[in-house]
């Protein structure tokens, strides 16, 4: 694995940690969930053979520190952070962007707020549940997760959250986790440390975000909506499928499920390259 060039960037209310590898046109990778730049360790080196690959820890995660640790979080501000990174690393050319999960939500806002900076966006399972016909049900889930987090703590809240993401009618216990690659296993400790912030600040803010669908309609030629091939029926799959149908674009399927980037890195990276070339 190649050591990346490390940088820091002052933004409104935070200092971002970012990493750059390779050379060529810029590819910005926006992590989701409780992950940071390290989420992309499994694919960044391979992608760097073709692109200047940049990724970062979102504000409040891992090495990207908040000036006020109690500050409320917003999709617009996280998207502006991505914009600032693009301005620093590719000031003269629009970039390719990939975002996963909550990172894909920030990426959708980036596309609508700064379309001139994005050549193509692949948004993998953005849980923008507000676009769904049963959005009110999912608002109830978010409220239950927050109530459980504040009264019972992190792990009970995560259990409520995980149950709400499962396929409708699926009452089975979670399957045994796919054995993670060594790099991914080593990241678990940092990811666990980010979970309280993710559950308490990111989940309620990001999952109540409603994208500007009329703007996405106008930009649909540079937006690719993607899902895990094993995610069909799960909650994070549904908004991407709904938006692809609404926009009249092809829904692309990637290896694995919601976390296919981690469980199937080689296949995921190859699929990512193919979709960006298409």
Written description of the protein model:
The chain has 278 residues and is an alpha/beta fold. It has one domain: Rossmann fold. The protein has helices at 41-47, 75-89, 102-113, 135-152, 154-165, 182-186, 188-206, 213-218, 237-247, 260-263, 265-277; strands at residues 5-11, 14-21, 26-30, 52-57, 65-66, 95-100, 118-124, 223-228, 252-254. Strands 1, 2, 3, 4, 5, 6, 7, 8 and 9 form a nine-stranded mixed β-sheet that branches. Helix 1 crosses helix 11 and helix 2 (75-89) packs across helix 3. The longest helix is centred in the last third of the chain and has 19 residues, at 188-206. Residues 171-178 have low confidence and may be disordered. Residues 25-131 form the AB hydrolase-1 domain. GO terms for molecular function: triacylglycerol lipase activity. It comes from Streptomyces gardneri. Keywords: Hydrolase.
Key traits:
278 residues; alpha/beta; Rossmann fold; nine-stranded mixed β-sheet; 11 helices; 9 strands; 44% helix; 18% strand; globular
Distance between the termini: 27 Å
Contiguous runs where pLDDT drops below 50 for at least 5 residues: 171-178
Helix-strand sequence: EEEHEEHEHEHHHHHEHEHH
How many strands, what sense, and barrel or not for the largest sheet? 9 strands, mixed
What's the gyration radius in Å? 17 Å
Mean pLDDT: 93
Helix content: 40-55%
- Number of helical segments? 11
CATH architecture designation: 3-Layer(aba) Sandwich
Q: What would CATH call the homologous superfamily? A: Alpha/Beta hydrolase fold, catalytic domain
Strand content: 15-25%
Please state the structural category.
alpha/beta
**Broad shape:** globular
CATH fold name: Rossmann fold
**How many beta strands in the DSSP annotation?**
9
Number of separate domains: 1
The CATH C-level name is: Alpha Beta
